[in-house]
Design brief:
The protein is of the alpha+beta class. The chain has three helices and five strands; from the N terminus they run αβββββαα. Strands 1-2-3-4-5 form a five-stranded antiparallel β-sheet, with helices on both faces.
Amino acid sequence: MNTTPERDDTLACGCGCGCECRCGSGPASPPTAVEYAQDLAAVLAELHHIRADVHELTSGNAIVSVHHGLLAYTDGERFWWTSPELNHADSPLLSSELTLLAAAKQLAEHHAILSAKDDVVRNGLPLLADVIRAEHVDPR
């Protein structure tokens, strides 16, 4: 029997970060893609001190722009993104997570990798180039 794994937003909030996310709000109604993306951005900010932009796509999905070149997509049920690390064949590696906290942890690790490679200071400018790219590229 195939069952969907429990998501961490249906459980009592165990992150202990005091963030504004809904991961402790209970299973009343599933979040929209934008709400789930906003929850990820809140956890990234509170637990990992990473500022992320949230944008709704015309498809109904949402993206979280974590770093230049690092976009996490969500449909309200899961997150997926292309890792900055390459696989054994030097090809992009698609990563995904079903839970909010696991996605935030992996994205924070990817953010650290990209930040270490950054040679351009962006002065806190918005990551709109990623948003434009996301509108024209189907991540699946």
